[in-house]
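S.,

Sequence below, as promised.
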Amino acid sequence: MDEIRSWVETSPYSRFLGVRLEDVSEQQVRLRMPYQDENSNPGKALHGGCAASLGAIGAQALARVVLGAESGPWHTAQLQVSYLAAAIGEDVIAVADLLRRGKEMCFVSVGVETAEGKPIARIETTVRGRFGATPVDLPVSAGDDGAADPGPMGPHIGRVPFIGNRGIVVEHMVDSTSRLVMPYLDDNGDLGGPVHEGAVLALLDTTGAMASWAESGPGPYKASTASMQVQNLAPAPKGDLVAYGRCVHRDQAMFWSDVEVAGTADGRVVARGTVLYRILT
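The prediction came back faster than expected:
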């Protein structure tokens, strides 16, 4: 249990978020993340990447307990996030419950809510322990055409506290496509050096949102991620990451954007998913 607490509270990324382990057993993990401006969108709203990160941290912590220390390295092979409401300037709590344990996988459901009990997000996950298996070759991203036009919004995205703290830069954001780069920073890392899974989720979420804005164009609108589905193919290695987003469908205020996250050094895909985004006029 001390190893679980150490991973939750001292890995650089979760330490930056302020995550604390409140309770742990073989059936449930309870986490708390206090409000801080560094984790917010404008208006003190919790960034969706923080809620997704909290779910992934809780689910993986529980899987580590259930599968045992020898089952690593671990990664959340599948994650589905439904964003239910915004947390505005308030602490949030995540409770991860074990649904089923397999030989090398744990199915975990995580509820995120405010300290007063308002539901913020529901996250369903599948966490895999590799039991020391040799890593396999990952697919190479097709990337994009290399255009570099951040559009009218791109240069301002880094001013959002949570996005800016990740070092995320919008390189391209026009014609329904986006390309964002996240440099390797200590505060984006996990214990031992790789990029923390939560930081990968934050990059994927933001890239999908930017592809939606690249489809709609800027305006005085209200917007938020409604849900996202993510597959982490492997733990992300230490290094810079690039994410490619493309809005593949729009239905009035709803936008579906596919995203791939890859290493900038070798182009190998570490995560992929779809972000369902809503922009209200």
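The chain has a mean pLDDT of 95.

Coffee later?
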